[in-house]
Amino acid sequence: MDQQTHRGNLRNSLGKHLVSAIVAESLAVGFPGRDSSRPILDSLDLTVEDGETFGLIGPSGCGKSTLLRVLSGINREWQGNLRLLGASVIPGRRFGGDLRRAVQMVFQDPYASLHPRHSVERALLEPLHVQRIPNARQRMVQTLEEVGLAPSLAQRYPHQLSGGQRQRVALARALLLRPSLLLLDEPTSALDMSVQAGILNLLNDLKASHPLTLVLVSHDEGVIAHMCDRAAVLRAGRIDRILTRTELAKTGYA
């Protein structure tokens, strides 16, 4: 099944009239285990359009990573209304079915996100087997090549890879299930400058060849300006303002 066919099937199963990839209304997340007058996310409203590359910027502790964890289904303790790819998400429930495959996340530290005792092959084949994807090995090889890695690297372990290779493996794992929404939490911050450029260019190439909506968290204004169509500035758990591509071309906006 090609990418456009998969996307069409996903739209039919998750919502025939998909307009926006993300619609969040009055989204709120408190501090776990205790009450607080300042929640992590405070009545946040956000819309990300289908096919958009959308940035999240702001100071440390403003709620960027928490928002990604809600959107990815990792953090299920939230309040408000949330629709992803046309499907309503219920607080406290795990993602299931098509939505579980359609929403994937890439974390900041590629080494921490890969099991040190699992080979690349095992890390990539496992989700395919869980989801009962046919021709799993062929899909693995194809995806490794898509992210610029030789299939022979599948026999290596994380400690045998460079930082850039590990992040490409993390990207490959996220892309294996052919997601429609890819969430990226500081995907280049742990990498050298020379490697960062390669990963960012790879993301743009992947988006050009795959029907993807990207949500990117970064502290780097240059990264956001290079990658994003729009970006939200978060402050104290709320969206302070939305920046257009023209505004992102300027400096000092965060």
Could you explain the architecture of this structure?
This protein has one domain: 3-Layer(aba) Sandwich (Rossmann fold). The protein contains nine helices and ten strands. It has helices spanning 3-14, 64-71, 97-102, 120-130, 136-146, 163-175, 193-209, 221-227, 245-248; strands at residues 20-29, 41-49, 53-57, 79-84, 87-89, 103-106, 181-185, 213-217, 230-235, 238-244. The strands form two sheets. It has a six-stranded mixed β-sheet, sandwiched between helices. The termini are far apart. The model is unreliable at 1-17 (pLDDT under 50).
Query: How large, in whole angstroms, is the Cα Rg?
Result: 18 Å
User: What count of helical segments does DSSP give?
Assistant: 9
Mean pLDDT: 87
Write down how many β-strands occur, each being a DSSP E stretch of 2 or more residues.
10
The CATH superfamily is known as P-loop containing nucleotide triphosphate hydrolases
Measured between the Cα atoms of the first and last residue, the distance is 42 Å
CATH architecture: 3-Layer(aba) Sandwich
Strand order of the largest sheet: 6-7-8-3-9-10
Summarize the amount of helix as a percent range: 25-40%
CATH class: Alpha Beta
Share in β-strands? 15-25%
Major β-sheet annotation: 6 strands, mixed
Q: Looking at the structure, what is the overall shape?
A: globular
| Low-confidence parts | 1-17
Q: What is the CATH topology? A: Rossmann fold
Number of domains: 1
Instruction: Please write the string of helix (H) and strand (E) elements.
Output: HEEEHEEHEHHHEHEHEEH
Structural classification: alpha/beta
